[in-house]
Amino acid sequence: MIITISGPSSTGKTSLIENLKKHQEYLESLVQMPVVFGNESVREVVSSQYELKSLQDIFKDQEESLKLQFKVAEYNKSLYCSIIKDNHCLYIFDRGPLDNLIYTLLCFNNCSSDLMLKYANDFSNYCALNQWLSENIDLILLTKPDDAVLSPEDDGFRPDLFSLLRCVETELFKLVFRGLKVVDLPSDHNDRLVCFFSEVTKLARNNK
Predict the structure, then answer these.
(1) Contact at 8 Å (CB) between 134 and 163?
(2) What is the pTM of this model?
(3) What is the pLDDT of residue 207?
(4) Dihedral angle at the C-alpha atoms of 136, 48, 5, 65, nearest 10 degrees?
(5) Distance CA 63, CA 113 (A)
(6) Rounded Cα distance, 25 and 198, in Å
(7) What are the CA-CA distances from residue 30 to residues 27, 142, 182, 196 (Å)?
(8) Which domains does the chain have, with CATH numbers?
């Protein structure tokens, strides 16, 4: 089973993951299977494929920033295809394919017209890939865009691009997730935990 926690930057996704890790034993008792926490895909790609480069450095180049999103989609394809049929573990990921779709849109729209023409086919293909991958996720939890601050804190990793396009990022999350079967998480941290465990209990029942 796969759960992704999605949402704009600085809306508490990573904090929720860290809190859930503290309750891993209880969580595993609920689902009656091992629980595996996955790192954010973009961080995995940057650390493994961009030696001595930070995400801020990558995003200074329009073409590299777009190609990074494509690499994240490929990474997700390999990762998710290996676990989609796995009913023996619960995988919980910080961000998912739809997040990658949104940041691919942001990067593509930030490109020059020449680059947009050069990568038009790749852009379409990777958008479709992200949408297909998202259909294989058992539960998508969304940190509501309305809870987002307009000036996210600097965590030493997030590029300035997304800070400058904060309003656009927030609106894209609202648009892409509109009408989908997702669960909006409350803003309070304790309420989020309660909501999470409630939804996981339902998921475990349905998968018996």
Answers:
(1) no
(2) 0.86
(3) 75
(4) -90
(5) 12
(6) 16
(7) 5, 21, 21, 12
(8) 2-206 (3.40.50.300)
Vertex 92 angle, CA 91 and 98, to 5° = 110
Give the whole-angstrom CA distance, residue 192 versus residue 190.
5
Q: What is the pLDDT of residues 91-134, one digit of tens each?
A: 999 999 999 999 999 899 989 999 999 999 999 999 999 999 99
- Torsion, Cα 121 41 144 167, to 10 degrees, reads -50
Whether residue 126 contacts residue 73, with contact meaning beta carbons closer than 8 Å, is answered with yes
Q: What's the one-letter identity of residue 100? A: N
Token pair for 69? 């999103």
To 5 degrees, how large is the angle CA 29–CA 31–CA 36? 95
